[in-house]
Amino acid sequence: MRIAIFYLVGKEHGYGHKVRCEALAEHLIDAGHKVNIISNSDSLTKDIGQRVFRVDGQLHNVKFSIREMVKDIDIVIVDTAEVIPELNEFIKSLGLKLVLLNGIGHELESEYADLVWIQDSPSTVILRKSVLELPVDHLALDHWMVFGGASDEMGLLRVFDAVCDEDADLLFTKLTPLSKIDFIPAENHRLVCVDDDDILDYMSGASRACVHMGMTAWEMAHLGVQAYVISKGKSHLRFANNLMELGLCMSYNGDIHDERFVEFLNSRYNCDDVLHKFDGHKNIMEALETI
Question: How far apart are CA 179 and CA 182, in angstroms?
Answer without folding.
Answer: 5
